[in-house]
Amino acid sequence: MPSVISIGIAGATGYAGQELLRLAARHPAVRVTTAMASSDTDRVRTLPSLTRVWDGEVIPLSVDRLVAETEAVFMTLPDPVAAEVGPALVARGVRVFDLSGTFRLRDPALRRRWYPATPDLAEPPVYGLTEHYRAALPDARLVACPGCYPTAALLALRPLTDAGLLEGDVIIDAKSGISGAGKKPSERTHFSECHGSVSAYGLFEHRHGAEIEQELERAVTFTPHLVPLDRGILETIYVRVGRAVSETMVASTLAQAYADAPFVRLTGNALPEIKHVTHTNFCDIGWKLDAPSGRLVLVACLDNLIKGAAGVAVQNFNLMHGFPETTALLP
Amino acid sequence: MPSVISIGIAGATGYAGQELLRLAARHPAVRVTTAMASSDTDRVRTLPSLTRVWDGEVIPLSVDRLVAETEAVFMTLPDPVAAEVGPALVARGVRVFDLSGTFRLRDPALRRRWYPATPDLAEPPVYGLTEHYRAALPDARLVACPGCYPTAALLALRPLTDAGLLEGDVIIDAKSGISGAGKKPSERTHFSECHGSVSAYGLFEHRHGAEIEQELERAVTFTPHLVPLDRGILETIYVRVGRAVSETMVASTLAQAYADAPFVRLTGNALPEIKHVTHTNFCDIGWKLDAPSGRLVLVACLDNLIKGAAGVAVQNFNLMHGFPETTALLP
Amino acid sequence: MPSVISIGIAGATGYAGQELLRLAARHPAVRVTTAMASSDTDRVRTLPSLTRVWDGEVIPLSVDRLVAETEAVFMTLPDPVAAEVGPALVARGVRVFDLSGTFRLRDPALRRRWYPATPDLAEPPVYGLTEHYRAALPDARLVACPGCYPTAALLALRPLTDAGLLEGDVIIDAKSGISGAGKKPSERTHFSECHGSVSAYGLFEHRHGAEIEQELERAVTFTPHLVPLDRGILETIYVRVGRAVSETMVASTLAQAYADAPFVRLTGNALPEIKHVTHTNFCDIGWKLDAPSGRLVLVACLDNLIKGAAGVAVQNFNLMHGFPETTALLP
Amino acid sequence: MPSVISIGIAGATGYAGQELLRLAARHPAVRVTTAMASSDTDRVRTLPSLTRVWDGEVIPLSVDRLVAETEAVFMTLPDPVAAEVGPALVARGVRVFDLSGTFRLRDPALRRRWYPATPDLAEPPVYGLTEHYRAALPDARLVACPGCYPTAALLALRPLTDAGLLEGDVIIDAKSGISGAGKKPSERTHFSECHGSVSAYGLFEHRHGAEIEQELERAVTFTPHLVPLDRGILETIYVRVGRAVSETMVASTLAQAYADAPFVRLTGNALPEIKHVTHTNFCDIGWKLDAPSGRLVLVACLDNLIKGAAGVAVQNFNLMHGFPETTALLP
Questions:
Q1: Does the annotation count A194 as an active-site position?
Q2: ipTM above threshold 0.90
Q3: Helix orientation angle between C148-162 and C207-216, rounded to the nearest 10 degrees
Q4: Which of A133, A267, B33, C33 to pair with A85, CA 20 to 30 A apart?
């Protein structure tokens, strides 16, 4: 292992890309040799908001330069571009941390439906939900980092489904800040359309729902909403537990699952709120059980650009390269 | 029926009280003779933000003056104060439109739990959900106007439960602007605590849930959230329909129920958003059915200070006094 | 004067256009016969947010149809389009209320610089700052309604410059909500760029500055800022008064100027704030004088879509047609 | 110099106090031994939002314990409390970084007017505007860190007044996020009062103005405004330069003054915006000169809780103890 690892960032001008540059600048064993735009026709540019943090130039996308200059690449590219660049890098010996949805679905049929450009890979990607795939990370060559919505949902639910505590289907009501929709202006993300408003979208449109269902092996109704804030998501999750399940069992199951997880904070009945996790890599999880009805409500929140994107990628990078898991990631 | 009706507003300095003054100023057959604070010890004050709209003085609370000067009183008082003032006014011949929770629950046990100050009344109040209690309003003496949360939920669900289309329990995930918490500063409504954040509160704390359950006769899980905007609520409602129920049946049931309701707008699959209803008396309702699973999701939204407070009170007033339902209420 | 006047709205889908539709629907003597998009190639569309308020169709732009169907037209069109459509309508007998900047500048050289498409007109337009051009409105054929920035500045300053109370130049620091930038998405109006931020723009770029200087006949430094809210502007204005000028003189000069102006509210030392004027046609003006230094600071605010656009147009329409000035305009 | 310095934070539960805890946790040579509330009667409490960052207990205020346990104390206390605690700590050998206004004014008359509780000190405090008082910091015992408003203004103006480039008085129009008003709820900082609004306050009320005038030796008109965001301030500064002064001279004067200042970023004609500095210790400064009129407008912005409070205190601490200036302070 070299003392300093040369990394590349492909898609450096977006919101997640800029977070990656900021986190990389804090990492004592990382040097960003190469930062690239999302296409090979973009102009060279600097990032004024990162002056004094990262003062390099963002150049057009080039697989050849990434191969020549880096050992690992963080990718925040459009799905079809990621589908092409990711395998090319892996084939030429570069490790890849992908933040798009391209490589997240294991089922070929589902993958063809939601990510038609994704090729079949000889070696399957590792799903980068760090807390539940820790053992697979050191040897991974292509890490498919989970999206912000699945991360919050799965961190809250996986220990409970693994322990067999839940019955029936799962309802996830998600509230997301607008940065989750990316940096490209659109009517839906126009300030005057979002300010003072809340709207649901993508009802029963299962792209993220499919990712959650894959990991839970259970039917999920997933409804995302846009709320008028910039960063952060909060999910309110409605499930049902068996008659014999108490709130104490829920609490101890979660506590055991995350005893060694530095970025999962369990808040119990004191429900988490977005303000406490923005600009951090934490995922906060709270819950409350109505014993008579068996209704369990969990609330999970995180910063979509950090724990839901750049932060989890760096967390996976740390585990792969043997650095302490929290390197560059504490607030 | 007199040509101009003298009305009083008790609790005129709060957000709903100011909306009442604004609406009353637009009403061609109403004169606000008396505007009062929430207690009999408050100082006399004016309301600069309403200059040129309503230029009177807000005086201390006094039942005697309300009886002497008004025919109808709109009350936005703390529950225990409303519990005392409301029946006193009715006993002395004044009609009352109450915007607090005091008189909403019919079951004495529930009422004692959530509103311990509320007395037993000889003549039961009319529940002022206009669209479903229209016939009872002309003869009402005390109208218990529903809260903003129950209004959105019940307008979406009552036609479906009445038609027997739903199975199982109901989950209501509500997102509310901060004005719903009133005008009194607190840590929870401090700007810096709310801005950029979302938080759930009152999980399984059934005060509004009880009101919704009373009208639906069905178990309800109700989770309110604070979202960083001032006015407006949006509820995402998760229910299940029977195998034989199609989206068309849902649509036609709602369309029939609200064929003559000027303030309910059905948006179908084009889901409503808060921005479209703020500063109006409309309640917008959309929905989508996932036929294979039987999961029906409804989305309803309204302005908590108008359709959820001042507006519905004026709407009930109009029906009681024989004015067109929309008088003073169109945007 | 006919009992009901047929009007057209050209540019009905933008934020100001929708406010015009809303205000027209409230006006007892107006019927919107014709609502048009901003170009002749736009598709026919409806406006779901105005359902039950105005349920017509927005059709492509057509001068012929406006001439055939209307007596007066409100225009919120791009400058070059307004430059062509406005004179064409006037020439064919239709009165025009223009909300663009096209016809506001009197000086031909300045006009050519800022609005190169504007033709020279045989009959000069009336500058529609109602409170100061009231006498000219009844006979106007083309009313150039002032922009939101000049309206606030001029209502605060014109009485003082007319009375000769001010010395030296004028500094106007303006804070504007994002709806002032229109409905078209752009990076500058993208939610995530505006939320939690403030930025200055257009420093010493004198398009609105020129309009203010025209009416004040005095040098103006005008600096607009975007602040993270939707509607409303607030201007903080720094001037200097002569030694003999007291705060009382300032107050009485303003009070006299606006004694009969229903939409100007003078708040004195109690400085106005945006919240009190949004969704109204009011302009609130406060001030404070530091007598030792002669520094006078005025603060003026208004709703940019109403008093700064749709509202002032309707106010001018009322005066032109002999309706009470406040018709359809009280909150 | 010990390898690890024990520090105390007095006033740890407020917004600036929590930033201090976060920054201290990142500092490799600091250990927070003692975190205290703002009074000696407060209860012991933890800070859930800082779980995993700083997990200690906040205890009641106690000078004795601070003396026993710490070498340096960061104070964010109410002015009268700071006036008592600060000198007591210094007298007993503890170095103090004060974030209140208590010790900022040098003129005894002004100090008595604005901070009547402040005692006369044998050894005058060092004014902690790092970039301009760097030489005095290593030997300081009591550092009066400047407020957020003066910091932005002085970083923009001091080099220009020192170089004699300015003529006449100075106008500072400041826009501040609400966290600047602290954590205590009040009507002015109630969410529903601030959202969607802007308001000016404290016109010609010279507490911060006096601090700025002290450092500039020049008359200042200072007008702060509340804008609806949480963190960050932006100041638009209006001055006049002499006939011989060009924009290039302004630029080179500022560039020379801050050649070695890691936290001042000069943006020239590309005006800075709040979004680029929040959650950082940077102060961004841009400007534009209108040569014909001699009007120079500068725009400066910073994060009020970091560069305007906790960050500058740590920056001063670093210089005093010989650590690199940026330790713990890069984003």
A1: no
A2: yes
A3: 20
A4: A133
